Every structure is written in C-alpha cells, then in structure tokens.
Amino acid sequence: MTVLHVIETLARGGAEQLLVTLLPELVRQGVNAEVVVLRGPYDLEGELERAGVVVHRLNERRKWAIVNSAVELAKLAKVRQADTLHAHLYFPISITATTKILGLFKGVTHASFHNLAYGGANKRTWKLWLRQKLSRFLVRRGIDQPQAVSKASEKHFITTYGRNDVKVIYNAVDLGLIGAITASANDTIVLPGRLVKEKGHLDLIRALELLEGPCPEVVFAGDGPMRPTLEDRIKSSELPVTITGRLSHHEMLKTIRAARLVVIPSRYEGFGLTALEALALGRPVVSTTAGGLPEVLGELGSLVPPADPSALASALSQALTDHEWRKTQERHGPPRAAQFSVEAIASQQIALYRQTLKSKNTGQ
Known about the structure:
Layout: E1 2-7, H1 14-28, E2 32-37, H2 45-50, E3 55-57, H3 66-79, E4 84-88, H4 90-101, E5 108-113, H5 117-121, H6 126-142, E6 145-148, H7 151-161, E7 167-168, H8 175-179, E8 189-192, H9 201-210, E9 218-221, H10 227-237, E10 241-243, H11 249-258, E11 261-264, H12 273-280, E12 285-288, H13 293-297, E13 302-304, H14 309-321, H15 323-337, H16 342-362
Parallel strand pairs: 1-2, 1-4, 2-3, 4-5, 5-6, 6-7, 8-9, 8-11, 9-10, 11-12, 12-13
C-alpha cells in the first residue's frame, strides 16, 4: 500500500506535526507513506526525511491553481504507484478531490478535517462562504473517505458537507518521544501554541487580572501574528507574562514538562494536541470545553466554557491551590494519553485505508 499525504506546507502546526508523528509509524507497520507538499515553508521536511519518510515538493503554484496542481499531483501519484491520496486542510483537499473528479487518479481519496473552519474559528465573510461552497462541492464528489480528528470535528463537517460517512481517527502522541523529555520543574503556568485569536491568550490575560493575590509566572510558548497585540496587552497589565517566540517541538515539550500547570483557553479547537501532550508529560491541565478538548481530557483536567475569563480565573485559583488535585492529574495523565498512542492510531488508520480500498475494489 502506497499512500501520498498531501499538505500545503511543512510549517510547524498541528496538522503538520501529526504527519511527523504518525507517518514513521505507518512506515513501521508496512505502509509506504510519503508526503507531497504544495509550497514552503518546509520547516519539518528534515524531520520527516530523517524518520524515513520521502517528501516530494510539488511545483509551487498560486493557491487557486487547483486544476494545474491536480494534474501534477496525479502525475506524481502514477510515478509513485500510489493507491491512496490522503489530503490535509483546505487547498490539499480541494486539489486531491479534483484529481478524482477529473478522472486523473483511479485510486481512493481520503481527507482529514483538522479544525472547525466554518463554525466560527474563521471570520464570516463572503469569501469564506464561497470557499465553503466550493469545498462542499469538491468533497462530496471527489473524496471517498472523509475523516475527522475528533467527534466535535466530525459533527462540524457532517453539517458543513452533508456527508454522514465521516470517520473519526484521533491525533496521536509518540509516547517514546515523550518518555525521553526531561526538564527541571518550575512554578510557571504555560499556554502552549500559536499566538492566534482562537487560542484564547487574551482570555487568559483577563483571567490572570481577576486572580486574588500575586500572579504566578506565565509563559506563552510559541509565536504568531498576535504577538504585537499580546505584548502591548501584557505591558499595560503589568503581569509576569513572557513570550518565548518560536520553539521546536522538542523545546515545546520541555517547556510543558517543566510547568506547574498547563492552560488551554482555546475558543475553537479541532482536537487539542497540546492538551494530549501535557497529559502524556504528567502535567495538570485547565482547559475550555472548545471542540475536541473534552474528548482528549476525558475525566481529567478542569474544564470551563470558552471565552469566560471569570470561570477560567476560578479554575486557575483552584488548580494552583489544590495540591491533591494536581497530584491526581499528574498520576492519571499518562495512562489517559496512552489511549492515543501512535501505534494504536496508526493501526486504526491502516485499517480504514484497507476498508476504503476494499469497498472500491468490490464496488460497495
């Protein structure tokens, strides 16, 4: 079985990191898994190649040159003798679906939905409406097996595309990698992730202002377009908040491992990979109920509604003062995370590939 995973860039993001985690395990379990990247940046290319995953750079074109890119993708699939194309995120899904609709690719097509793009995570404009209509047309006609990374994402895309055959394959965590992470403990609160509106950094700042007593040290671990806004807000609040800037995945894991508490105040979240990694690292988590986060945490964590700084402040106060609660979270986090082990998730993904291929070959 040869599967080409199609993705727009190899920048450091959740969907891109999933490929770095999952694809080497697919290879170990017997799948020839390769990556097709549409355009730069190519930050994670080296990590994939060092793990034995071949990366192909498609001839870079304008984002909306969907037909031309589909032709190139189909040619590459023929050369690599691929029987499955697996697309991630908007433009790769559009291009992959087009290869099938135009009859350029005779194998099967999968598409993974990683976010809640049409549920409020993106600003509602006529451009977003048009993108949704185009994507609905292409996905309904050109994707054999739609996938979601959580039940929340599944529900969102069933509504968006009107397809009732979406399968949930959760994101995975590499417990071997996690087990090798060491870091000196400190008393920081860490919010890991890109500095974007949907991650709720401003909600956390407001919650910190509502805390009674001195505010602990807080670290925003990551970088992104909201950094100038956050720096101004931090300065005006005079809170002890620092921004690390861009971190490698290993550096991010070390930052989480050292923390006293991990906070995920997301307003929108397709899955919640950083919450899963925090569990695996034995860190207590305070999180919102956005998207797939409750599915990741299960019975663990302290959950509050999104965009509710008052509720978040109360949860933080309890988490920081309740020593026994934190010890319970630290003890039960790793066993919970083990349910999302890369070995188990890879096996589920391979079983779905085989099922889709069988259905195509038998005409079911």
